[in-house]
Write a structure and sequence with these properties.
- This protein has 153 residues and is an all-beta fold.
- 0% of the residues lie in helices and 46% in strands.
- The chain is built from no helices and 11 strands.
- The protein has strands at residues 5-15, 20-21, 30-31, 35-36, 47-57, 60-69, 72-74, 85-86, 89-99, 104-111, 144-151.
- Strands 1-5-6-9-10-11 form a 6-stranded antiparallel beta sheet, with no helix packed on it. A 3-stranded mixed beta sheet has the order 4-7-8, with no helix packed on it.
- It is elongated, with a radius of gyration of 20 Å.
Length: 153
């Protein structure tokens, strides 16, 4: 920290060691790490990570977060899928906070700052793909802006 200026950097990540599925005790065990499809359902990325940086100076705080999802491919046996793989995906989020006084703070945020479209995978049985993407994994809404005011008593 230099005077009233500070820089914070953080990294939070997950590496999936294994993720298997078995529909019944007599059925084959299916490995889903790095795949998506009928049995595996939504994507199980091997690596997911958030890298964040925050700069504080005076009454201001600015934060930037990079959300990373590793590439995934269609589980073996699903060669009929239109899309056989989804590349790695990154989203960028921005937040700005201004301390108006000791009790009021104003917050502005932007999620998916670059307005990146989700991958289109068509409708896949067994997956939550009614919107032609995995809406619970990728960002189907595009850029979202938020404005908030916090008051403490």
């Amino acid at each position: 920290m230099l005077g009233e200026t500070s820089l914070d950097i953080g990294l939070a990540g997950t590496y999936v060691l294994g993720s298997s599925f078995q529909s019944s005790p007599n059925s084959e065990l299916i490995e889903c790490k790095g795949y998506y499809g009928d049995s595996c359902g939504g994507p199980t990325a091997k690596i997911k990570a958030n890298l964040s940086a925050g700069l504080s100076f005076g009454d201001w705080k600015i934060g930037l977060t990079l959300r990373h999802f590793d590439k995934v491919t269609a589980q073996p046996g699903n060669e009929y899928y239109e899309i056989q793989s989804i590349p790695s995906f990154n989203y960028l989020d921005l937040s700005v906070q201004w301390k108006w006084n000791d009790t009021v703070r104003v917050n502005l945020s932007a999620q998916n700052l670059t307005d990146k479209d989700p991958p289109i995978v068509a409708n896949i049985s067994g997956g939550n793909t009614a919107s032609n993407t995995y809406a619970d994994f990728y960002d189907p809404l595009g850029r979202r802006l938020g404005l908030g005011i916090s008051v403490t008593f």
